[in-house]
Amino acid sequence: MPSTQQVLVGVLHCQHDTYCKEFTSQCISCSDKPDKKGFYQVKLHDTILFPEGGGQPSDTGYFNETIKVHDIQRHQLEHIHYTKEPITAGSQVKMTLDWDRRFDHAQQHSGQHLLSAVLEQAPYELPTVGWCMKEKTSYVELDTVGKRLPTQDEWNQVERRLNDLILQALPITCHTRAMETTERPDSLPDDYVGGVIRTIEIEGIDTSLCCGTHVAHLGHLHAAKILHTETIRGGNTRLYFVFGQRLVSSLGEQYELSRQLNKALSVPPSQFLDSVNRLQLQLRTQTKMVKKWQAQVASYAVKDLKHQLESHDVAVVYDEADGGMPYFNILHALIKEHGLLPDDSQKAILLASGGDGQQGGGMLMVLAANDITLKKLAAKVTETLEGAKGGGARGRWTGKATSLAGIEKLADLKLE
Ligand SMILES: [Zn+2]
């Protein structure tokens, strides 16, 4: 007889055996069609894949070796698996757990219980009001309103205490009992009604209500590292941490990054900051210098434009240094300042920048005193330059071209 009832969330196989990596259970139902995101919703009798909850993300895994389980969610006390392929109701499903992800989650979650327990006790007495497991790090949110925050020295002591307790490899056990009708712990989600009360005990240290998957003893946390704090709105504090494998992976990433920086900056890690500060100072000085030069070059360019307009309808400035829009804006301001295009002028100015010796693409700006003249020159520009396009009105057209070749021809245009 196929079973029609699910084992309820609270007493799932994954919740009493964190270390079970393979398991077979019967499929009770599967949605007829995939949902909008392309997922079938599969209900199994029991599962070794943890449904997201209590700050712990869901597991991932496979059904029958090949069908990926992307997500598992709790709906009240039911558990639903999300797959991209349907599963036949009544069939036996062999589940395989993504163990690395699970063990990482269990390490961070048990680590969080340990960290919160240590911080709640004297001499710190900082209660945890929430926590969050992120991809690389996690944090506990501590109620620190009106309290003195531990000093760096004290955070170091907390870290030492965590690592001492990890060395003691104290057992972590899970207890479940039926919920009394009158009992309703505040920390339970609103839609968790009925079912069991589940507590996680770290021997001699802590007992907390929790739905998550935990390591068997503190030794499986390997090591703890406290990272940094962050003050958030309302005066609470986030304390970031990593446990176990994350600590090893993160050290590996940081070490590799440090080696790359060592190569790029040609100084040892102890001088990275000095080196970057020096480079930033250089950059600021050079940026200032470039701006001064741009202003100087622009003042010559404007004189040249004025000279061109005396004998031509169109004046062209080509800026090979690729100053782009910031340079155009300096020029535009100077053109206005010098009154090169008075209200009754029928002439126009074309600014071009980039182009890599005119063969490559570049930025364009057309300026005129009225929109008829502006459109005339803009039309000629798009006609003459390869891949040129743009738009604008009220005397200012901006665009770009894939090549600036032939731009000099535009200087001889008649706009009448
Ligand atoms: Zn928990």
TrEMBL record:
One Gene Ontology cellular component: cytoplasm
Keywords: Metal-binding, Zinc
SMART domains in the record: tRNA_SAD (SM00863)
Annotated GO MF terms: alanine-tRNA ligase activity; ATP binding; metal ion binding; nucleic acid binding; Ser-tRNA(Ala) deacylase activity
InterPro entries per the UniProt record, alphabetical: Ala-tRNA-synth_IIc_core (IPR018165), Alanyl-tRNA_Editing_Enzymes (IPR051335), Thr/Ala-tRNA-synth_IIc_edit (IPR018163), Transl_B-barrel_sf (IPR009000), tRNA_SAD (IPR012947)
Subcellular location: Cytoplasm
GO biological process, one term: alanyl-tRNA aminoacylation
Domain of life the protein comes from: Eukaryota
Cofactor: Zn(2+)
Main location: cytoplasm
Residue span, Alanyl-transfer RNA synthetases family profile domain: 1-253
Keyword Metal-binding: yes
Stated family: Belongs to the class-II aminoacyl-tRNA synthetase family. Alax-L subfamily.
Protein name: Alanyl-transfer RNA synthetases family profile domain-containing protein
Organism per entry: Absidia glauca (Pin mould)
Taxon lineage: Eukaryota, Fungi, Fungi incertae sedis, Mucoromycota, Mucoromycotina
